[in-house]
Amino acid sequence: MEALACRCPRIKFLTLGCFQGLCKASWLHLDGVAVCGGLESLCIKNCHDLTDASLAAIGRGCGRLAKLAIQGCDLVTSAGIRRLSAALRPTLKEVSILQCRFLHTAECLAALSPIRDQIESLEINCDWEEVEQPGCVANGTAECNHEDDEPDETSYESASKKCRYMMELDNFSCWEMLRSLSLWLVAGQQLSPLISAGLDSCPLLEKISIKVEGDLRTCPRPSPLSVFGLSDLGAFPVLAKMKLDLSEAVGYALTAPTGHIDLTQWDRFYLSGIESLESLYELDYWPPQDKDVNQRSLSLPAVGLFQRSVGLRKIFVHGTTHEHFMSFFLKMPNLRDIQLREDYYPAPENDMMITEMRPESWLRFEGQLNNQLRFSDSEWH
User: Could you confirm whether domain 211-381 is CATH 3.80.10?
Assistant: First the structure.
């Protein structure tokens, strides 16, 4: 790395994978990749000896970094992320933290507090852990309740310091410049803890990507009132594009044993509340699938919930659906672009499931659409 910095002093973009000794940070002087002071983008993958001290050294040496990605670095903790973000506060705009064993989503969000007011793109793919709410903060405002404490001078001083500390943290609670957000969740897990993790204030958020992965067949049956929590995204006033990727969420497509639910009910679980996203313009949806029967299809609950989201203009579904379900889309006044993309495990040409969408079915849908809504072919795809 030192030779690279010497021979390529103008290097700005660097991606490194499976390196050892990338930045030892064993002394006060800079070493390894930390000596590449001109870097603006750095991606580190599967460097298993990268430590918090290494991140701190990178923060001191690479003072121009605007984009940082860390993946599979198992020794990194939230302390290292905080030190790095504090050192790179003047420049860092894009952060990606993926699959680091000792990092949890809530911890990452807290560790990024030094740059919350300026970060523009954030991607977190870590285990989810709900944040424990501080005792003297409720609903985003500093409140103290010390009824059980002794009313001596020491307790009052301690309470005052604690409240001042929480008010300082509250100043970093707004992600003022965040425009793109990507999250990863385990199958069956709810999105609601996102608010408690500190992402409730994103006034400029335009695009969100949510990846759900896991086996729905092993998840407990959700209660009738239990939903994924898309309605919580209604707090983002300018959210225009959403990618909801359930392609790696596996379940039962047709029949389910006693005590389990099929994928139609999981569609309802994940899509409930989408109608509350009034500013949502474009939806990219990957339905859950049953790999055993090679099927990824848009169910009746899904199209029914899509119909209620009247603001949508573009819908991209990576799967197929039944022909008669397409009539639901005719009742969406603002919809101008709808696409079914068989880019997963497409059904063979000799498949006799005549209820699935085929080119002939799609032509009938277009004809009905043009006759009913009087749209030209150029306005619909």
Answer: yes
